[in-house]
């Protein structure tokens, strides 16, 4: 399974900070019902055994909705559960090495903050780029700000799809119109909301409008 541009419209990245008594499975299911087009499981502190069990459950859930399921950073977990792919940052395993480990049919996403990083990731086999943080974000403390002009320049420089990430919500997503991105990746704009399904549907409508502007 390789990356389809339309699958990247509304890319939901999990975060267990806002579970509030719910399970991650329930939250992801609500996001999928609301129209999320891509799911990335991001776990920085979970032990391997629980991470593996959770990844298997969520992969099955995403299959039911026909939505790609990726693992953040952890190539071993992605391989073990046969996820659709993996997303890596600049300090993680390089895209070419990930491809060698996972195979030709898997989706590899790479984070980029500059045109140079974007071109190198494309050259090494990335299927899409996540560019950000495009707005201030509390989710990722070490995120570097990426101005609109850089986002636009990256979109113009590469042939692979580009999504924006970082501090994006229903209120500011329109500011990204005209940049060339095919979608957005969000965390709190979905998973920190009381009504996840409704918030996802509202955000998706706003993103569709922005992308087509």
From TrEMBL:
Please list the residues that bind 4-amino-2-methyl-5-(diphosphooxymethyl)pyrimidine. 40-44, 72, 111, 140
User: In what residue span(s) does the Thiamine phosphate synthase/TenI domain sit?
Assistant: 10-190
Record's keyword annotation contains Transferase: yes
> What's a single GO MF annotation on this record?
thiamine-phosphate diphosphorylase activity
For activity, the cofactor(s) needed are: Mg(2+)
According to its UniProt record, what is one Pfam family this protein matches?
Answer: TMP-TENI
Catalysed reaction, written as an equation: 2-(2-carboxy-4-methylthiazol-5-yl)ethyl phosphate + 4-amino-2-methyl-5-(diphosphooxymethyl)pyrimidine + 2 H(+) = thiamine phosphate + CO2 + diphosphate; 2-[(2R,5Z)-2-carboxy-4-methylthiazol-5(2H)-ylidene]ethyl phosphate + 4-amino-2-methyl-5-(diphosphooxymethyl)pyrimidine + 2 H(+) = thiamine phosphate + CO2 + diphosphate; 4-methyl-5-(2-phosphooxyethyl)-thiazole + 4-amino-2-methyl-5-(diphosphooxymethyl)pyrimidine + H(+) = thiamine phosphate + diphosphate
- Fetch the NCBIfam families from UniProt: thiE
Please identify the protein, giving its name as recorded: Thiamine-phosphate synthase
Name its species: Enterocloster lavalensis
Gene name on record?
thiE
